[in-house]
C-alpha cells in the first residue's frame, strides 16, 4: 500500500535527507587513495550520531541475511550495491558508490553518490556521468499523472542508448516512517504502465548502471552484489517527492553539490 505524505511529513523526510547530505559531504571530502572504506564508514557514523540521528542501514535485516554491519553502504568498482565497509585501502582510479540513509525524528532520508579515488579513467568517468544523468531523467519523469513505467523507461532508454545495462534485481522504494515502503520503483519499464503517480508520493530514484552486462551475483557475506562479468558499476540516488508543482528532490540542497 502506498501512503501519501502530508506537507509536514515531506518536510520531516527532507530534514532527515539534510543530515544524510551533510554526512555525504564529509565522507566525499575524505575520499582519497589509501583511505579505507571502513574509515569512511566511521566518519559517517560519527557525524550521524552527532546530529541525534541513527544510520538506517546499521543492523538492517531482511529474511535470510545477517544484520547489515555498516552505518553506510560503500560499493567499490564491480560492487553494484550493499557493499560492506572494510579495512581495504582505496587505490588510484577506484570508483565507489556511497549510499547513506538516516532516520531522524521518526523519518528516513536516503541518497547515493558515486565518486572516484584519485584520477578517474575516461571509461569510469563516462559511466559515472551517464549514471547521474540517468537518475536525473528518472527524477524529471516523477510528475503527477505519469506512471512508474514512464519513469523506468526514461532511465532504461537513456542508459541502453549509451551502451550500458540497467540492473534489474534492485530498485528504488517508497520511504518515510519506514526505510523501505511501497511503491517499488523499477529503473526499467514500458511507458504508460504500472502505478500512476500522485501528489504526496515519496520514493527514491536510484539506478544502478553496469558497464557490461546486467547480471549480478551476491557474495558470501550475504549483502554485497557484484557484476557477474566483473565490469564496473555505478549508482546515484535521490529521495523525491511528487508534488503538483513537479518533482521535488528532498535530498538536494543549494549549498551542497549533489
Explain the overall architecture.
With 258 residues, the protein is α+β, with helices and mostly antiparallel strands. A hairpin with a 2-residue loop joins β14 and β15 (246-249). It is built from four helices and 15 strands. It has one domain (7-249): Creatinase/methionine aminopeptidase superfamily (Creatine Amidinohydrolase, Alpha-Beta Complex), CATH 3.90.230.10. The protein is globular. The strands form five sheets. Strands 1, 2, 4 and 5 form a four-stranded antiparallel sheet that branches. The mean pLDDT is 98.
Put the structure in a nutshell.
The protein has 258 residues and is an alpha+beta fold. 27% of the residues lie in helices and 25% in strands.
Strand residues, percent: 25-35%
Which stretches are poorly predicted, pLDDT < 50 over at least 5 residues?
A: none
What's the CATH architecture name? Alpha-Beta Complex
Structural class: alpha+beta
Characterize the largest beta sheet: strand count, sense, and whether it forms a barrel.
4 strands, antiparallel
> Would you count the extended β strands for me?
15
Classified by CATH, the class is: Alpha Beta
Amino-to-carboxy terminus distance:
30 Å
Range of helix content: 25-40%
The global form is: globular
CATH superfamily: Creatinase/methionine aminopeptidase superfamily
- Work out the radius of gyration: 17 Å
Amino acid at each position: 500500500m502506498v501512503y501519501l505524505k502530508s506537507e509536514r511529513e515531506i518536510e520531516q523526510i527532507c530534514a532527515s535527507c539534510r543530515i544524510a547530505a551533510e554526512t555525504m559531504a564529509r565522507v566525499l571530502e575524505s575520499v582519497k587513495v589509501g583511505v579505507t572504506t571502513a574509515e569512511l564508514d566511521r566518519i559517517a557514523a560519527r557525524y550521524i550520531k552527532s546530529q541525534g540521528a541513527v544510520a538506517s542501514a546499521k543492523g538492517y535485516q531482511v529474511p535470510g541475511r545477517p544484520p547489515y554491519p555498516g552505518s553506510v553502504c560503500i560499493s567499490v568498482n564491480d560492487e553494484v550495491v550493499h557493499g560492506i565497509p572494510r579495512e581495504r585501502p582505496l587505490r588510484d582510479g577506484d570508483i565507489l558508490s556511497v549510499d547513506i540513509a538516516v532516520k531522524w525524528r521518526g523519518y528516513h532520508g536516503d541518497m547515493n553518490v558515486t565518486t572516484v579515488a584519485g584520477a578517474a579513467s575516461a571509461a569510469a568517468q563516462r559511466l559515472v556521468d551517464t549514471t547521474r544523468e540517468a537518475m536525473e531523467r528518472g527524477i524529471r519523469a516523477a510528475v503527477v499523472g505519469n506512471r512508474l513505467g514512464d519513469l523506468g523507461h526514461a532511465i532504461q532508454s537513456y542508459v541502453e542508448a549509451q551502451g550500458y545495462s540497467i540492473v534489474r534485481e534492485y530498485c528504488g522504494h517508497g520511504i518515510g516512517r519506514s526505510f523501505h515502503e511501497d511503491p517499488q520503483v523499477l529503473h526499467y519499464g514500458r511507458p504508460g504502465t504500472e502505478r500512476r503517480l500522485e501528489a504526496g508520493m515519496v520514493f527514491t530514484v536510484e539506478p544502478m548502471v553496469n558497464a557490461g552486462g546486467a547480471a549480478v551475483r551476491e557474495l558470501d557475506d550475504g549483502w554485497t552484489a557484484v557484476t557477474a562479468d566483473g565490469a564496473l558499476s555505478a549508482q546515484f540516488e535521490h529521495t523525491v517527492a511528487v508534488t503538483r508543482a513537479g518533482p521535488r528532490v528532498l535530498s538536494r540542497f543549494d549549498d551542497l553539490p549533489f
